[in-house]
What we know:
Keywords: Carbohydrate metabolism, Glycosidase, Hydrolase
CATH topology of the largest domain: Rossmann fold
CATH class of the largest domain: Alpha Beta
Family: Belongs to the glycosyl hydrolase 3 family.
Strand content: 15-25%
Largest sheet: 6 strands, mixed
CATH architecture of the largest domain: 3-Layer(aba) Sandwich
Organism: Saccharothrix carnea
Bound molecules: beta-D-glucopyranose
Structural class: alpha/beta
GO molecular function: hydrolase activity, hydrolyzing O-glycosyl compounds
Distance between the termini: 27 Å
InterPro entries: Cellulose_deg_GH3 (IPR050288), Fn3-like (IPR026891), GH (IPR017853), Glyco_hydro_3_AS (IPR019800), Glyco_hydro_3_C (IPR002772), Glyco_hydro_3_C_sf (IPR036881), Glyco_hydro_3_N (IPR001764), Glyco_hydro_3_N_sf (IPR036962)
Amino acid sequence: MPDQIDRTLPIELKASLTSGSDTWHSTGAPGVVRPFLLADGPHGVRRQREGGDALGIGNSVPATCFPPAVALGSTWDPALVRRVGEALAEEAAALEVDVLLGPGMNLKRSPLGGRNFEYFSEDPHLTGRLAAAYVEGIQAGGVGACVKHFAVNNQETDRMRVSAEVDQRALHEVYLRAFEHVVRTARPAMVMSAYNRINGVPASEDPWLLTRVLREEWGFDGVVVSDWGAVDDRVAALRAGLDLEMPPTGTDDEVVAAVERGELAESALDAVVERLRRLEARLGGAKEPVSEQELAAIRDRNTDLAREAAARSAVLLANDGVLPLDRSSRTSVAVIGEFARTPRFQGGGSSRIVPTGVSSALDALTARLGTDVVRFAPGYAVDGSGDEALARAAVEAAGAARVAVVFLGLPEHAESEGFDRTTIDLPADQVGLLEQVAAVAPRVVVVLSNGGVVSVARWQHHANAILEGWLLGQAGGEATADLLLGDRAPSGKLAETIPLRLADHPSYPTFPGVDGVSVYGESVHVGYRHFDAADRPVAFPFGHGLTYTRFEYSDLRVVEQAENTWEVAFSVTNTGDRDGREVAQLYVGPAEGQQPTRPRAELRGFAALDLRPGETATVTLPLTAAELQTWDARGQRWTVLPGDYAVRVGASSRDVRLRATVHSDGDRVLAPLTAQSTIAEWQADPAGQQVLAALLGRVSLAGRASSVAPELVRMFLSIPLDKLRSFGLGVTAATVADLVAQAQARQEELIAAGTYRRP
Ligand code: BGC
């Protein structure tokens, strides 16, 4: 914050700059700062010409609809996501947009989350890497990115009031981790503060979140904008570190009055002005519109990229060899399901855009296979109003074909921003249709369209192959045909677990909470962290995805480079007979039996490899203290605990191909020992251990130590030192004070000798 108050600008003017001038513009002041045009995002530019709304109700200028984050998340491909960001920026700039309101990067805590289609993953490492690439891409094009929704915005139920009750460790290790990575590495122009509360404090009015963590710890130097309508108390928000309230609520007078009453430091307003000016310096002058021809050329290029990204996003969940479809024998393919003709390609709410043109899988397959080969039957109506006749026609088509490609998925009304789902099942009429089709079709391929995960357990045995197509953007139809026909090989990997049953999910008992409180009872055990730790079967694990070839993993070498720094190297060979891309994954966690409350394995690195048949590539991934550390809530800091760590490399979180163990001596940080530290904590500390040994020689228990039952010794361990005074052991307040002083002195010696460090 500036120390000096800028007296040259009236308070009223400064106050006006801390809010928008309309739904999409920040307020500008000649000679001070220009206004900025903000637009949704994230998977396309939602530029509204006049008025506007934040709910995706009103129309916007047509724009390329890229695959939403649920799909891009499955690419595990930061380079591709960066290119999507660059393309979005080009289109945004052409439409005079200064800041694109994306990427959305909240974690998928529950498969029911209504906005899961707008988020990348259930894992913070993957989310962080992909969101950083998105931001870098957008900003390389001279447009600002705005990461959202900061933070712990993981549900839609009661989204504007709910308090996410989450422990400190889960906050740091899971929910803030991806934001931290993006802020530190990609320097987004803006961060959007969320609607919800975190442990009772509104995220948009939380000084700990917006100032201490975001700015002071992570070094964020951009603008914090509120989610649309998130601010209740503008003065509290400004005090907390929010810069820009959107859209305006006409409450500038309250801000001015608060400054005059001394309730809000004027320097807080100066800080906002300074940040807005810095944003102007970053983004330059207002964007120039481009000609219609230029815009058309940009959109054409972007449609090609949208198709490439869509093809990379789909995940081949299962395949017994039916895919790619054999197009040599020109026997018929039954294309079944309304979604083949009327694709679902984006989600509902503020991110909904008007696409420049939408391809359907039916058109794409028909164009490539011929009208004599493809026979279409809608089978069901998307709104559930279908009847027996529709299903009968589909069954008839399937019975006459060599293979039935059945398009199933979630209708628009089943998932959207603004509400959560209550089930992960596909609509019953669609499952019923699949059962009937499978009874007559020689072979069945299921293609899914859904923004949130759907359960496959009830029907997967009917399918010879399942292609999870998520929501693939406007070019998804062409991309789906590319994959089904083998013009491209699938390469997507699941960025979230597909559970067998909703009830298996760690969030199940507490999501979405009651009475405005959502308790994050599973703590750090989000998604696969829980399933893998509990060894619970899943339908398809995190990281899973097949292609049309096979890969072998070999030669794992983990070489120590420095203290708590290793290089993990291994080889991957394409052992099949087609080109293919494998995403090799590195998982790390405490070895069996150690640090029992931590996840067994967490994604800590990945690499995408394009390999020709017979080709081998060697991957090297760094493994550093950052990958081993855990959040110490008592000490309020990251720590690396000493012990063994299991290093796993594989094709999914469950398909582990190579294993090794590394040992860490920890970060060798000596946290202060106090009278409140337990005997176990004293024993675990090298200085405490020595000092305590002397005490144990003096207390009356010590002489009988060998005869003390083991359970008593264990009970002793959990007692804070000071409490020993209550147990008739001859320990007094003076003894305790003396021990604490001795321990401090011994710790200082160890630190001075260079063996240990200060926190
Ligand atoms: C959404 C944001 C969006 C904003 C503006 C809000 O309702 O939560 O993601 O950027 O509206 O449309």
